[in-house]
Here is the input.
Amino acid sequence: MVEKNKPQERPRGGWLSRFAPGVRKIVSRRDTPDNLWVKDPDTGEMLYRSDLEASLWVTPSGRHMRIGARDRLRFTFDDGEYEVIDTPEVAEDPLKFSDGKPYKDRLAAARKAQNARDVMSIGVGAIDGTETVAIVQDFAFMGGSLGMAAGEAFIAAAREAVARDLPLVCFTAAGGARMQEGALSLMQMARTTLAIQELKAARLPYVVVLTDPTTGGVTASYAMLGDVHLAEPGALIGFAGPRVIEATIREKLPPGFQRAEYLQEKGMVDRVTTRAELPGVLGRILSMLMDGRRRAA
Here is the structure.
C-alpha cells in the first residue's frame, strides 16, 4: 500500500548538486581562502589580495597599508634575502599586571596571532648593495608598543651594527609605550637613546623610516634621533593623536596635520618616499654616509 501525500525526500546538497553532481565538491568553501579580497580603506573597493601583494601592499588610491616585519624586511633587502638576528629575552610581566585580562595572556595571544616573540624584528643584509642592520617595529603586535623587549631589541640591533661596522636603519610603527609595563616601559626611551649614542661614537649612520602610525614615546625618543628621516606617504607621525590635541586646545587642526607630507613641509621629515622607492633611496643615502665616514677616517 502506497501512502498518499507523503512529502518526497529532497536530495542532499541543494539544487546545484542535483543538476551538476560533483560541482559542489569543486567549489567547496575549503578551496576558497577567507582572505582572498581586501577592502581599500579609502575607497571601499574590494582589492584582489595577490594584486596588493604584488604592489607591496599599496592600494590603487595610494594608501600605504600597514605590513608586518617579515614583509618589511623582504621588501627592503636585495632579493628579499637577509640574516635573522635573534632578539634578547626579557622578564615577562614583572608587575603582574591585569586590565581585566592578565598581561601574560595578552602576550601569549599576540605571539600566537603574529607568530613573533615581540614587536621588534632584526635583519642584516644588503640594501641596494650596502650591507645594513635593519630593525622593524610591527604595529600588529600589541599596537607596536614600546616595552622592555622592544628596548632590548633596539639596543641589540645598535650593538650588532657597531660590532659589524654597519649602518642601522629603523622602521618605526607604534601607538606609544606599553602600559602593562609601567615605568619600565618609559625607561626604554632613555636606554634606546643611549644606544644611538653608541652608534654616533662609532661614527655609523642611523636612518629612520617613519611608517603609519608612529606616535607616543617612540616619537619622543629613537624615532626622531636619526641622521636622516624618511617617511611613507600619509603616515601619521606625532606624540599625541590629533583628536587629543583638538580636545585640549579646542581648535580645529590644519588639514593633513601630523601626516608625513605636512611634516616634510615643516622640516620634521627629510623626504616622503613611496614603498617601492625606499630600497633605492635608502641604498643611496647609506652608501653616501658610509663613504663619507670612510673618507674622514
